[in-house]
Amino acid sequence: MKNIIPLGDMSAEQFLTEYWQKKPLLIKQAFINFDNPLSADELAGLACEHDVESRIVLEKDGTSPWELRNGPFSEQTFEKLPETHWTLLVQDVEKHIPELTGITDLFNFIPHWRLDDLMISYAPDKGSVGPHVDAYDVFLLQAEGKRCWQISSSAIDTCEIISNIDLKILKQFNPDQDWILEPGDMLYLPPGIPHHGVAMGDCMTYSIGFRAPSHLDILQSFIETIIKNQDCEKLYTDPKLDLQASPHEISLNTIDSFNQIIQQHLDSAKQTISHSVGTLLSEGKIQFQSQKAEETLDEITFIKRWQQKESLFRNTAIKFLYIPSVDHIDLYIDGQHCHFDSNNVELAEWICSTLEYNHSDCNKHNEKQPLCSLLYYFYQQGYCYFQST
C-alpha cells in the first residue's frame, strides 16, 4: 500500500487543526480503489481462535434483543446465525495479522502511543451494534459493501441507555446527519458523538481506534513511579508536637506537615514525570504483553545467527516509543524502560518504526556495537524474534 495520508485533499495539519477531537469528517475515497486484504470467511476463522477477542451482536432472533455473544466461536455458531440483523466484531486484528499494520501505519500523523487497535467487523444486511457513543477517536473505513452512518449533533445523556442488556445502546437517538459509505470511503468521529451504522447488504468495516489514558491512569502511573523511585518507607515524625486541647483533633499544623511531605515527594518527582509517562503510554494490553523466551542464544551466537539469517522481526503487537534527552535516549517498550547511550533521534526512530531489523542495515549506523547489544536485549525480552523455519 502506498505511503499516503488517507485524508483526501486535506493536509494532516488542517485535519488536526480543524477536526481532530472537534467534529466529524467524511472523506470520500480516502483509500482509492481499496482492495480488502481480509475476506469475511477469514475474519470468521480468526474469531474461532482462542487468543482472539471477538464478539457477535444480534439485534434480532437471539435469546433477547441486542444479545451479545463473546468468542471464540465455532463454525456451527456461524451456520446457525440468522440472515440479517447481526454483526461480527474482531479486535486487534493488526496484532494477529502483522501485514495489516500497513493500514494503521498510514495514520502516523497521529502519535503512535494513541493507537489502540484495528477492529474489523462484518455484517449482513441490517447488521449493526445499535446507536451508541464511544470514548475514543475512530476512523471508520468501509472495506466492502455499503453502510449507512447516522450521527447526532445534539448532546445526549449517556446514562440513558437500554437497561438489562450487555451493550451500552442509547434509548433515544435522533440523527441529524447521515451518509452512505462505499468501499474506500472513511468517516472520522471524535469521542462523544452519538452514531449508528447499519449495513446495506453484506459489508465489512475497518475501525482504526485511538484511545487516551484517563486522568486516573495518569495519576496512578505517576504515583507508582514516585513510590518505586523514592524512599517512601520513611516514617512520619513530629518531634515538636504541641499540646492539644483535645486528643481527638487533627490540628492544622498536622495537616500542614502532611502537606509538606506530599509536596516534598512531588518536587522530587518532577524529573520522573517523563518516566511515568513513557511507561504508561507504551504499556499494551495484557494478552499482548511480551514473554521472555524459555531459552535464548548467548550474544555471540545471536549475532552469528543474525548475520546468517539477516532478519530479526519486531513484535508488532507491542509499542516501541522513545523520549530523547541531551546525551541519551530513553526507550519505552511494552511498559518497560530501556536506556540507550545515544542521542541519535534518527536511530531511535529507526528502532521504533522498523518491523524487520537487517544486520546489513545495522552496519550502516555509527553506534553499531551498542545497537547490536540493544537488539540482543530485545531478543532476550521477547521484543523481537527470528522467523521460524
Element-by-element helix/strand order: HEHEEHEHHEEEEEHHHHEEEEHEHHE
Q: Count the beta strands.
A: 15
Query: What is the tally of helical segments?
Result: 12
> What is the count of structural domains?
3
Task: Give the terminus-to-terminus CA distance.
Answer: 27 Å
What is the CATH topology assignment of the largest domain? Jelly Rolls
Q: In percent, how helical is the residue content?
A: 25-40%
Low-confidence stretches: none
Average pLDDT confidence is 91
- How would you classify the helix and strand content by structural class? alpha+beta
Strand content: 15-25%
Sketch the major β-sheet.
9 strands, antiparallel
CATH architecture of the largest domain: Sandwich
Describe the protein's architecture and organization:
The chain is of the alpha+beta class. The protein folds into 3 domains: 199 residues, Cupin (Jelly Rolls, Sandwich); 68 residues, no CATH class; 99 residues, 3-Layer(aba) Sandwich (Malonyl-Coenzyme A Acyl Carrier Protein, domain 2). It is built from 12 helices and 15 strands. Strands 1, 2, 3, 4, 5, 6, 7, 8 and 9 form a 9-stranded antiparallel β-sheet that branches. A 3-stranded antiparallel β-sheet has the order 14-10-15. A 3-stranded antiparallel β-sheet has the order 11-12-13, with helices on both faces. Strand 12 and strand 13 form a beta hairpin. Helix 6 crosses helix 8. The longest helix is centred in the C-terminal third of the chain and has 17 residues.
